[in-house]
Design brief:
Helices cover 32% and strands 32% of the residues. Helix 1 packs antiparallel against helix 2 and helix 2 crosses helix 3. Bound molecules: 1-O-pyrophosphono-5-O-phosphono-alpha-D-ribofuranose and uracil (URA). GO terms for molecular function: glycosyltransferase activity.
Length: 209
C-alpha cells in the first residue's frame, strides 16, 4: 500500500498559509510555490541511495558519501505542475524534466490528456510527478497511468494540497506510488475544488482567469 507523507515542517506550513490567502498576488504566489517545492523535495529525496568515496580533506584522507548516481526525472502535470519544477531542480539539478499535459473537463471533472513528452530512458529513471493540487485525483491517476504505459517503474507523487478523495483515488489505482503532500484538506466542493484549498492553482500561478 502506498505511504502518504504530510509535511508538517513549520516553514512549509507558514509558506502554505500565504499561498492559500486570496490576496496573495501572482508574483508572490509563484515565489512561494517555488520555495515550498524546494522544501518538499528535500524531504521527498530522503531515501536517495548513497555510496562511499575516498577524499582528502585538508587534514586527512577519509571515506565520505555522495549520491549513488540514480537517474531522476521530474514530471510536472501541465499547467500548474510547472510552478514546482524549478524549486526541485535547485536541489537535484541533473534531473531530466518530462511533461504531461492534462486538463480537467469542467463538466465531467475527468482528465483529458493533450501532451506527453518524457525522457527517452524512461525505464531507467525514478520520477517525481508534481502538481500543486490533488483534488478528485483524476489528473494524477491518469498522469501515472501515462508514465507507466511508457515504461516508467518507480515514481512518487508530490502535491501541495490534497483532498481525501484524491489521496484515496491514487492509493486505489496506484498502491505502489507514495504520496507527499504539504496539507490534507477537508473535502471537495460541488465544483471539484479543494476546500479550503487555494483556488485554481494554474490561474493563480500564471495570472489567468
Ligand atoms: C488542476 C490541477 C490538477 C488538477 C487537479 O489543473 O493543477 O492538475 O486540476 O484536479 P483533479 O485531482 O480533480 O484531477 P486543471 O485541470 O485546472 O488544469 P490547468 O493546470 O491547466 O489549469
Ligand atoms: N484544481 C485546482 O486548481 N484547484 C482545486 O481546488 C481543484 C482542482
Amino acid at each position: 500500500m502506498a505511504k502518504v507523507y504530510v509535511f508538517d515542517h513549520p516553514l512549509i506550513q507558514h509558506k502554505l498559509t500565504y499561498i492559500r490567502e486570496k490576496s496573495t498576488g501572482t508574483k508572490e504566489f509563484r515565489e512561494l510555490v517555488d520555495e515550498v517545492a524546494t522544501l518538499m523535495a528535500f524531504e521527498a529525496t530522503r531515501d536517495l541511495p548513497l555510496q562511499d568515496v575516498e577524499i582528502d580533506t585538508p587534514v586527512s584522507r577519509t571515506t565520505s558519501k555522495v549520491l549513488a548516481g540514480k537517474k531522476l526525472g521530474i514530471i510536472p502535470i501541465l499547467r500548474a505542475g510547472i510552478g514546482m519544477v524549478d524549486g526541485i531542480l535547485k536541489l537535484i539539478p541533473a534531473a531530466k524534466v518530462g511533461h504531461i499535459g492534462l486538463y480537467r473537463d469542467p463538466e465531467t471533472l475527468m482528465p483529458v490528456e493533450y501532451y506527453v513528452k518524457l525522457p527517452s530512458d524512461v525505464e531507467e529513471r525514478d520520477f517525481i510527478v508534481v502538481d500543486p493540487m490533488l483534488a478528485t485525483g483524476g489528473s494524477a491517476v491518469e498522469a501515472i497511468n501515462s508514465l507507466k504505459k511508457r515504461g516508467a517503474k518507480n515514481m512518487k507523487l508530490m502535491c501541495l494540497i490534497a483532498a481525501p478523495e484524491g489521496v484515496k483515488a491514487v492509493e486505489e489505482a496506484h498502491p505502489d506510488v507514495d504520496i507527499y503532500i504539504a496539507a490534507l484538506d477537508e473535502r471537495l466542493n460541488e465544483k471539484g475544488y479543494i476546500v479550503p484549498g487555494l483556488g485554481d492553482a494554474g490561474d493563480r500561478l500564471f495570472g489567468t482567469k
